[in-house]
Amino acid sequence: MKRARIIRKKGTQPHPFRIAALCLIVLVLFMGTRISSLADKAERVKEDVFKESEAYFNAQSRYNRLKSEVNEINTNDFVERTARRDYGYCWYGETIYTVVNLDELEESVADETRMDDEEDSEAKETGEMTETPEAADVAPEAGN
Question: CA 128: distance to chain centroid?
Answer without folding.
Answer: 53
